[in-house]
Predict the 3D structure of the following.
Amino acid sequence: MCDYSLHGVRNRPAKVGEKLVTTDFGTGTRGFASPSDLQTAVCLLPGTELAFSAGISHSDWTLRALIREWSPARTKTAHRTAIFRQINVGQMTHHDALEFPNGKRVLLTCLSVGQEATVLQLPAVPRPAPETQEQKPASIVA
C-alpha cells in the first residue's frame, strides 16, 4: 500500500530481497523507492518485514521538541528491523507506519531521507483450501 498522498506518484509493489531507500516524493509524504529509480514509490503490504542497514532515524514531532527547537528533533532507534503497518485508516491523514520490535509505531513520512532497507518478507496471501475452490464440471467419457 502507498499512503494516500502518493496515489498521484508512479508506484509498484515491493519484492522480497529488494533494496529500498527512504525518499521524499515532494507530495508531503515520504516513502520507499528503489535506489535506481527514486521517482517510483515502492508500495508495501501491511505485515511486510524490513531490515535497515543502521538504526532507524525519524523525526520526533512532540510538542516539547517543537517548542525547544522550533523544528522536529531527530531520534535514532537502536532497532534495525520493523514491520510495515497501516494506521489511522478511514481518516484523511498519513496511514503508512513502521512498527518496531518494542511496539512503538512511527509514520513513514517521519523517517529521515536516505535510509537503506531490505524487504525480508512479504505477508502471506490467504488462499482457499482445495475443497473450497470452484469445481469445474468433469467431461463425460462415453
